[in-house]
Write a structure and sequence with these properties.
The protein has eleven helices and eight strands. The chain is an alpha/beta fold and 336 residues long. Helix 7 packs across helix 8. The N terminus is likely disordered.
């Protein structure tokens, strides 16, 4: 949410110009948006967002992804009181289906079979978010990690079978994920794919790009204290050019630093929380209106990346659009 009240750091930050953008990773279906999803959808469009991807992470919420997509489609079909067509005021929503590694103990083989059937019948845009995660000690346990690997491979198999790109969630397991991907038949050079919210180091960033994945850049790039991330993104660009990056909000997580409350900014805190680590029955509770990330904040990610790379937004934006289309195996025309 973009704030302009007296307590917001944005009072001294000029709003970026508006460029057409693709938000490659959102949890915009989450209940934290239930009270204002329509105005937030319109604000996203006004800030340049033309496409957004709704990402799956638990089987129980797959139906909610489609309900949210349908609700946004209904916004497209609605008319104002003057009967004026409003198709041009909302982004188009797309769906990725995946079983998130953080919730591995909740996933069952039945969930995997159900997901495979949904992919067969409804063909989402992508498979995700999937991968490996050893964020907690419990997740490092051999039997838990082995189950993560099994589900990761099974979902990569689904992606290969249906020729779909994947959205990777890799956290504190980059070496293991790279080894698994190198041994698997999934080929990101042919099928696309995104290393969502990339959090590894310089060598890992280059390794994922070498495999054919784009690196997902979030609002964390605006945090100058995120030195490891900023070095990794620069290293990847130095080696592969800006063609290796895509933008995402990961909303309601990863709020750009300038969109947070001034108190958080002054103390160096950043809203980099994730649904992962929270109870799925209480997802994102406590994410108040000041710190909740929204799709309309995507231009600030563009601005932060532009400043980091010293590349003008008008150069970055169309290239990032093309990168997103390549990663998602689409051909959405760049708006003029």
């Amino acid at each position: 949410m973009i704030h302009t009240d007296s307590h917001s750091a944005l009072n001294h930050t000029p709003l970026p110009a508006i460029y057409p953008l693709i938000d490659t990773h959102t949890h915009f279906d989450a209940s934290v948006f239930d009270n204002d999803r329509q105005p937030q959808t319109q604000q996203a469009y006004e800030q340049g967002v033309r496409h957004l991807v709704l990402i799956g992470y638990l089987q129980r919420y797959f139906s909610r992804l489609y309900e949210t997509q349908q609700a946004i489609e209904q916004m497209h079909l609605s008319e104002d009181k003057d009967k004026t067509d409003r198709r041009d005021v909302y982004p188009v929503a797309h769906i990725a289906l995946g079983l998130h590694p953080f919730y591995i103990e909740q996933h069952t083989d039945a969930h995997l079979s159900s997901m495979a059937q949904m992919v067969q019948e409804q063909r989402p845009l992508a498979i995700g978010e999937i991968g490996l995660d050893t964020y907690t000690d419990a997740m490092k346990q051999p039997e838990v990690f082995a189950k993560q690997e099994r589900f990761f491979k099974a979902q990569l198999d689904i992606a290969v079978r249906h020729k779909l790109p994947v959205m990777l969630h890799i956290r504190k397991a980059h070496a293991e994920a790279l080894a698994l991907l190198k041994a698997h038949s999934y080929d990101a050079h042919k099928l696309g794919g995104i290393a969502h919210s990339f959090s590894g180091g310089e060598q890992e960033a280059k390794a994922f790009v070498k495999l054919g994945f784009k690196l997902g850049v979030t609002g964390q790039i605006t945090n100058h204290n995120a030195k490891k991330l900023r070095r990794a993104i620069k290293a990847a660009v130095d080696n592969y050019g800006i063609e290796c990056l895509v933008l995402e909000t990961d909303c309601p997580d990863m709020t750009p630093i300038m969109c947070q409350e001034a108190d958080n900014i002054s103390t160096g805190q950043s809203n980099s929380q994730s649904a992962a680590g929270q109870s799925p029955d209480n997802e994102w509770q406590g994410t108040d209106g000041h710190n909740r990330n929204v799709p309309a904040n995507l231009p600030w990610v563009l601005k932060g990346l532009s400043e980091l790379l010293d590349v003008e937004p008008e150069v970055l934006a169309p290239q990032l659009w093309q990168n997103s289309c390549e990663a998602l195996q689409t051909s959405w025309p760049y708006p003029t």
